[in-house]
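Dear Dr. H.,

I hope your travels went smoothly. While you were away I took the liberty of generating a structure for the chain from your last submission, since the lab meeting agenda had it listed for discussion. I wanted you to have the full record in hand beforehand rather than looking at slides cold. The sequence, exactly as received, is reproduced here:
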Amino acid sequence: MATRVTDRAGQVLGGRYRLVAPIGTGASASVYLAEDTTLRRRVAVKVLHDALADDEAFLRRFQAEAHAAAALNHPNVMSVFDWSHGGGNEVAFLVMEYLSGGNLKTLLDGGYRLSLSQALLVGLEAARGLDYAHRRGFVHRDVKPANLLFDEEGRLRIADFGLARALAEAAWTEPMGAVLGTARYASPEQARGEPLDGRSDVYSLALVLVECVTGLVPFAADTTLGTLMARVDKPLPVPDELGPLAPVLRAAGAPDPGDRLDADGLGRALLRAAEHLDPPLPLPLVHTVPTEVPAPAPDDITAVIGGVGAIAAAGSPDPVGAAVADTDLFGAPAVVPDAEPDVAADL
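The corresponding predicted structure, in token form, is as follows:
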């Protein structure tokens, strides 16, 4: 049964955040462009649906995860500013930085297919954000295109750190369509119900990167069970059309976490693969600014992906080369096997 959603545009939450217009709605929450009337800035406010707001166990976990997520400070992780657990007539909500560049899901759903260089930069920035979070004890658990957002300059940010864990422990159950959507990017260990570490996120990211280039999610089936069971013990099928990315993603998609790259290893491997690719073209970002809010300048729409350099703005002839030079996180490139390893889930 579909979740009934109330349009809260115009409301002021927490005595501070004026909801301007909806950006999108998912199974667990609705996201609004909002104005922080205290600091006079745009923010994004995620308002949890009533079914979750009534789950006391979830709210306790949500509070703990929101506190922890707010401590994450990295260029490739969406910043969390504030939260409220509800109470009385107040709704439960999370306040985050507003990113006007849309998300990867919208781009892919529109039929856009990334070049190898574009996919590499998406993977590199996501790997950086994941590595930062993993080193601080966070596992995302729900890496998927809808959670990979872009700012106005095209830099990728990972959204919803902590929320997936809180949802996993909630008594509330997502509608089947939402479960299927998340299952499309689940790791084999998630399918087996095993404890997770950061390598689960790496597997999910590998699925996303294959989809970025081919338009297809490996192992995706018509049912949740079919999707999960298809990848339990099989190596990730990566088409040869992914060129130098293919061996990297096969190593990131090993069904056994012990044989899989971690986020740091994935970043190193992507840097090595970058040496064999041409510079990427800008992504056609799909902006999320509602019509009643002034649109960004045209130059914002042509922003190049990533914090590794913008072709037009910075005049760099090779943003991939810039990424290789920026090795403060990953260091020297890793050696990635040329052959497939023997060993073997919106909003």
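Two observations you may find useful: The beta strands are 12-13, 17-25, 29-36, 41-48, 80-87, 90-97, 148-150, 156-158. The chain has two domains: 12-97, 99-347.

With kind regards,
E. W.
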